[in-house]
Each structure stands twice: as C-alpha cells, then as structure tokens.
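Annotators were shown the component list below and the corresponding predicted structure, then asked to write short factual statements about the assembly.
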Amino acid sequence: MTESTSTKTFPLHDALAGRRSPRAYSPSATLTPEQVGPLFEAARWAASSSNSQPWSFVVGFRGDEVFSTILGTLASGNAVWAEHASALVANIARTHTDEGKALSHAWYDLGQAVAHLSVQATVEGILVHQMGGFDSEALGNALGLDDHHRVVTVMTLGLQGDVADLPENLQEREKAPRVRKPLGDLVSGSANYA
Ligand SMILES: Cc1cc2nc3c(=O)[nH]c(=O)nc-3n(C[C@H](O)[C@H](O)[C@H](O)COP(=O)(O)O)c2cc1C
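Structure shown to annotators:
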C-alpha cells in the first residue's frame, strides 16, 4: 500500500514537504559558489558518529572540468537530464581513518549530511536530485581519491526547467504522484499509526 504526500498523516514543514527529486532542470540557469554555500553549511552541521564528519563534496558547475568529469561517469539514463543541471556534486564518504580503522557509520553520516543539504536547498529554492546510477570507481579515480574514501552518490543542483523538454518517458515520471509507504508500516513499538 502506498500513500501520496497529499494524504500524509501529519503535516510537514514546508522545507520538507517541498523537497523532491526533479529531472527537468533549466539549461540556462547558473549557480555560483556563493549561492550553493548555504547548502554545504547545512551539511557541515549534520550529526555524525563521534563527530567524525566523514563527508566531503567535489563541486562542478556546468561548463567546467569537474562537471564534465562527473557527468562522464553517470549512467546514460541519468546523464540525459542531469547534463542540464547547474551543478554536479560528488558526495564522498571517508570510510577509514589514516590508521586504517573502519568508520562504520560513514555512509549513514554522509546520507544525513546530504539530507540536511537537501532541506536547506529547498529553503533556498535550489533543486537537488541524488543519484546512485554512476561509476563510483571511475569517478573516485578521476578525482584522485585514495582507498579510504568513496564516492557514495552524486547529485544535481539547479533550478526548475520545462518538463516538456524532457524525453517522453521522463515526462511521465516527472508528473507521476510521489508515493510513500504508510506511516503504520514504518513505526511500531509503543507508537502505533496503523
Ligand atoms: C541513494 C540514492 C540513489 C538514487 N539514485 C537515483 C538514480 O540513479 N537516478 C534517479 O533518477 N534517481 C535516483 N534517486 C532518487 C530517488 O529515485 C528519489 O529520491 C525517490 O524516487 C523518491 O522521490 P523524491 O526524492 O522526489 O521524494 C536516488 C536517491 C537516493 C537517495
């Protein structure tokens, strides 16, 4: 069973309710380091295991070399729309300390930092779409990462474009209702929302 956001059980803050992962980016919109700064500031203040902050981000703006490098590692189904975004970002987890000790919560912590970032982005009017569909090994090599770091996801940053400019199959996905499992399926114990 699924539930659309229009029938959610409890009201959400606008910064959460307004977040979504779009594919229709404006190919003429640009973003600057100043404009995306608040997003990375939000990531910086996320919680992490032992305050290890095992995250880092490599940012490319459309037209520059970093953007082309990241774009070149995307699965073709992602590249077709992501190429129009204003920025592409590699989201990197530090998986081990310098001494080789595993940071076992690193992926969790990075995900939490990106969640913070995506909420701040919604406040700033910037759209974020995270992707797992890319070649992590190729991108890690291209960025010169050592084996204590891994690109876990990449993401687009940009402004809303025209849905009609997307390939037809993606237009359908863009217009489809956003759905979620019911709250009662996620929560149990002494809180029961079934
Ligand atoms: C780790 C992760 C990997 C994802 N990979 C892709 C991807 O490769 N391509 C894509 O179009 N969307 C990708 N997404 C976006 C999800 O499909 C999207 O978040 C989900 O459908 C819910 O939609 P919403 O973000 O609009 O609420 C990914 C999201 C996450 C968090």
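Statements collected:
1. The domain at 3-178 is CATH 3.40.109.10 (NADH Oxidase).
2. Residues 140 and 146 are 8 Å apart (CA to CA).
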